[in-house]
Q: What sequence folds into this?
């Protein structure tokens, strides 16, 4: 087991005991009918990039910071896509999703991201997480102002 996967495993034990309430942000980065997905060092699935909100941050600041830290990505414009709740991993997690087709990406990643890639919206890899797949399907169907379970 790699160190990131061990840390993730220990976090899950901690979450099972404490059942925390968390708030996170994720982004759909879209270019020419493709979407950017990330594969973390501690997961085997593909996800929308993002992370948690730090104390005192607003949602927009958090997603801009997370994308800059993880992908060296600068958002030029951003729109709200939806707000979701997840009870996976023993947490009460609220997830705010943004989308953008106007961003700059240098190609650098941090130690948390194993790799990233752009995938056609209608040809996603099998290993996409269920919540990520649902959000992409909502986007392709033209849904807006979304909310519900992740």
A:
């Amino acid at each position: 087991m790699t160190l990131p996967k061990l840390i993730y495993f220990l976090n899950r034990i901690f979450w099972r005991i404490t059942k925390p309430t968390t708030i996170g942000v994720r982004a759909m980065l879209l270019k020419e009918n493709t979407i950017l997905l990330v594969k973390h060092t501690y997961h085997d699935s593909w996800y929308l990039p993002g992370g948690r909100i730090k104390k005192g941050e607003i949602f927009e600041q958090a997603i801009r910071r997370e994308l800059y830290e993880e992908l060296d990505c600068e958002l030029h414009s951003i729109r709200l896509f939806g707000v979701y709740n997840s009870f996976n991993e023993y947490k009460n997690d609220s997830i705010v999703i943004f989308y953008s087709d106007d961003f700059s990406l240098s190609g650098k990643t941090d130690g948390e991201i194993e790799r990233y890639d752009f995938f056609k919206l209608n040809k996603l890899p099998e290993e996409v997480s269920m919540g990520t797949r649902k959000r992409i399907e909502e986007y392709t169907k033209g849904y807006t102002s979304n909310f519900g379970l992740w």
The chain has one domain: 3-149. The domain at 3-149 is CATH 3.90.79.10 (Nucleoside Triphosphate Pyrophosphohydrolase).
